[in-house]
Structures are given as C-alpha cells and as structure tokens.
Amino acid sequence: MRSKSLLLPPFLSLLPLVQSQPSNLSCPSNFQTCLPFVPSSNLSTPFPPTSPTDYGVIGPPLQAVHSSSSPPTGLAVDPNQTIYLTYPRNSGPTPYNVVICPSFSTEQPWPNASIQNCAPGQDASTCFINVQNVVLDAQNQLWVVDSGIPPGEKEAREHGAKLMSFDWQTKAWKRTYVIPSALYYDSMNANDVRINNTLGANGWAFITDESAAGSLLAIDLATGHAIRRLYNTTVTRPDDKYVGVYNGAPVYLWNGTRKSYATTGADGIALQGGNVYWGVLASRRWYSIPQALLIDDTLTDEQVLAGVVFPSQIGSEQAGLTADDKGRVYICASEHNAIFYVDTLAAPTISEEVDAVAAGGSGVVAPEDFVVRTLVRSALVQHADSAAVWDGWLYFCTNQLELAPARQYGNVDARRGPFVSYRVWVGAGPAV
Ligand SMILES: *[C@@H]1O[C@H](CO)[C@@H](O)[C@H](O)[C@H]1NC(C)=O
Ligand SMILES: *[C@@H]1O[C@H](CO)[C@@H](O)[C@H](O)[C@H]1NC(C)=O
Ligand SMILES: *[C@@H]1O[C@H](CO)[C@@H](O)[C@H](O)[C@H]1NC(C)=O
Ligand SMILES: *[C@@H]1O[C@H](CO)[C@@H](O)[C@H](O)[C@H]1NC(C)=O
Ligand SMILES: *[C@@H]1O[C@H](CO)[C@@H](O)[C@H](O)[C@H]1NC(C)=O
Ligand SMILES: *[C@@H]1O[C@H](CO)[C@@H](O)[C@H](O)[C@H]1NC(C)=O
Ligand SMILES: *[C@@H]1O[C@H](CO)[C@@H](O)[C@H](O)[C@H]1NC(C)=O
Q1: Which domains are present in the chain?
Q2: Distance from the CA of 28 to the center of ligand 1, in angstroms?
Q3: What's the pLDDT score for residue 13?
Q4: Which family does the record assign (predicted)?
C-alpha cells in the first residue's frame, strides 16, 4: 500500500501509535472530551442554523487513527492497539486482502504476502479469496472471515468460504473452519463474524450471510460443525425495493442508467449478554436471538424463528455492529454519518427514565424498552463499516460505500480517499 503523509482537518488530533499501553479505562489526560453518553449537540454548530452548512455535530471529537488510500470494510484492534483492515474483492481484485497498520499511513500484508491471493489450483481453504472482516476474540486470537466468492462471481469457491484463526503475536495460523459446501446454496455470502470463546467446549462463531435471501451461521469451534439458520426469512431478508439515504441523497443500485435496489441481507453482527444481534443491511431493521437457539441442532426452523426478538427499527441502514462490556451495542448508522448505540443493561450513566425503567440502576433492559441513541454524528463518518472496542475506545473504519460505482448513476466512482479510520472514547472494553 502507498505510504505518504496526509493533511487532516486542524481539529483532529493525530494519534501517536503507541505500541503498548496498560489497560486503563479512564479518560486519557490529553483528550478533554471523554463524555460519550452526555448529549452534546451544540459542540460546534449553532441552532437554529444561520448558514446552509450548519449541520449539527453530536458527541465528542474523533481521533483519526489510520488513513487508507483504498476503501476498507473490516477493522480489528489488537492488544497493542495496532489496527488491522480488510480490503475485500466484492467489486474487483485488491492486492492485499488483510493488512496490519504499523503507522498512521503505512500498511503491510498480514499475516504475510503469500496468503493474500489463492493461486490457480490452490486449495482455497489455505489462502484468501475474499476476506470481509478480521476480528479479535476474547483470547486475543485474530479471526478472518472469507466469503470464498471471487470478484465478479456469485457462488463461493469449494473450501473457500471459511474462518481462519491466527496468533496475534506470532501471526501463526492456528486453525481453519471450512463452511461445508452443502451450506453454499443460493449464493451464501459470509460477511461478518463474532466469536464467543466461553460457549460450549471450545467456543462458537456466529456469522452473517448477506446474500439476498440472508441467513445466520453458527460454527462449533470444538468440532467444526456448522449450522445455517433463518435462511430466507423476514428477519434476514432485505426490504422490498429498499431505498437508503447517504449524505442527504437517496441511494439506488445502478447499472449504467438502469435502476434497481440493494438486496443485501444480514450484515452487521454483535454478541451481547448471551444474545446474537444482527442487522439487515438493505433495511433499517435489527434483531436478536439467544445464542443457545442458534446452536441447537435439535430445534426446527420454526422454533428458531420463533425465538427471534425484534426490539424496534434502528432508524438507519447499517453494515456493522459491535458491543462492549457494559451492555452497549453500537450501530454504524451509515445513513446519518453517525454511530448509534443501545444500552441493553441499565447503568448509572443512563440519565433518562424510559417506560418503567428508572434512570441509573442495574439489570437487563427488556428489548421493548431499548432506546436507540446517538454516540457521535460527524461529517467525517462517511459510512462507518466495521467497529471494534478496545481499552476504552470504539474504533471504526470508513469507506464511503454508497459512493461506489454500483450505487451511483452511470456507475461513476464518487469515492474520494483518503479513507480514514477513527476512534472515539466510550470508556469500556469489548463484550466477552
Ligand atoms: C489510569 O487511571 C488512573 C485513574 O483511574 C489515572 O490516575 C492514571 O493516570 C491512568 N494511567 C494511565 C497510564 O493512563
Ligand atoms: C451547550 O451550550 C450551552 C449554552 O451555551 C453551554 O453551557 C454548554 O456548555 C454547551 N455544551 C457543549 C457540550 O458544548
Ligand atoms: C506488543 O507490544 C510489546 C511491548 O511493546 C512488544 O514486545 C510486542 O512485540 C508487541 N507485539 C506485537 C505483535 O506487535
Ligand atoms: C504465510 O502464512 C501462512 C499462515 O500462517 C503460512 O501457512 C505460510 O507458510 C506463510 N507463508 C510464508 C511464505 O511465510
Ligand atoms: C425467499 O422467500 C421469498 C418470500 O417467500 C420468495 O419470494 C423467494 O423466492 C425466496 N427466495 C429463495 C431464494 O428461495
Ligand atoms: C448491466 O446491463 C448490461 C446491459 O443491459 C447487461 O449486459 C449486464 O449484464 C448488466 N449487469 C448486471 C450486473 O446486471
Ligand atoms: C458467551 O457465552 C456465555 C455462555 O453462554 C455467556 O454467558 C456470555 O454472555 C456470552 N457472551 C456474549 C458477549 O454474549
């Protein structure tokens, strides 16, 4: 990848990439605005507006942590606060599929260069075809989820749809879980993954399938057994003729001058309190289900579907969710240049009584009492795609997805780099 210095808006503090920091969830003394859960809509913009460009900024300022010359989709942070990004091949080849970011604007293929592109005839379980995301688990292992679908094709390559785990320190490959080809039907498209290390004998992985039918997958990390559930149900399928909004403009799919509609199914995923949360991309809907239902082979599809909870719409299309250890689930609200969040646990930081749930306090909030709130809204948030929590910070990458050729009239590429990843203080660690 290119390495060059980039100009940043003056109010952005450039993050010095510290190689090692103690885990300490108090606000860093050099960062004044660690108030993520205090409404702060007047940080920089007068209201009522006095100028056509007075859009409200919500939340604390963002710290830029990495600058990419190409648009990334996936992001992970390791215990040294080093960032990893994925450059998937959904709209064409990319030289490196997964990179580590040694500095603000430099990148190196990770774990190495030779794994980045399967060679013709190579066993597709041993190399990258089209990695969508990289995530850190609670045992500090890094996981890559590969859709196995080569650029321009619709079906996963044999043995290509898979999860691979790696040691974060040595970069050594540890294990590969190939999604069996019996589950590839109707263009299964593995998109995002979260790992629960303490479920079952050796943990389980949960994966969203963003195909037009949509589904969720669960993989038993002890045995490799894989289950595909909720296939082509209303809770994984996109809205009919969905039209989203981006930077104030409605978004369609375009083939030259021919209009169609996004059909992306289940996409963002997060684990919180024993539940799997996911959003359907071409919709403003999200859902949850107890993880125990998704991993239970003995249930019928109807029983699994009956266990799905629909708390409410979330007010935005999204391509990414994540969760912290204080019960919050974060939503990359791409239609609003924002990150939203929901408290699934009552906490002293919650200052409003809602329904019968008192302010402050403790305990689980019932899904019907969830309130979607705004963590941060900023013009800099140009389609946050993946997010990860580490050491008090929420990190996310941005990629301007809606400005890519498939979503622009005449298929122009309206994306303009650099594509900056940011972090914002949330004062929590990752959900475990
Ligand atoms: C860790 O947090 C404490 C307050 O809880 C603070 O006094 C100390 O300076 C912090 N250390 C670092 C390295 O940030
Ligand atoms: C919002 O405006 C009020 C009144 O000017 C001010 O007291 C307050 O500090 C402002 N809040 C923020 C977060 O800037
Ligand atoms: C993490 O940081 C420690 C302390 O600086 C260093 O010894 C170690 O090599 C780093 N690990 C990686 C994988 O960068
Ligand atoms: C690249 O990494 C993979 C996974 O760890 C490993 O199998 C392979 O031998 C490595 N290749 C080189 C040239 O180091
Ligand atoms: C998914 O379900 C819808 C609604 O029942 C149906 O119209 C569609 O054909 C199904 N898709 C597949 C791939 O089976
Ligand atoms: C776009 O339209 C052209 C011309 O009608 C057609 O040949 C092509 O298959 C279409 N592409 C897609 C991805 O639908
Ligand atoms: C992981 O599974 C364990 C055991 O069921 C559960 O207690 C825990 O809440 C789950 N973790 C998350 C983040 O949901």
Answers
A1: 67-428 (2.120.10.30)
A2: 8
A3: 37
A4: Belongs to the major royal jelly protein family.
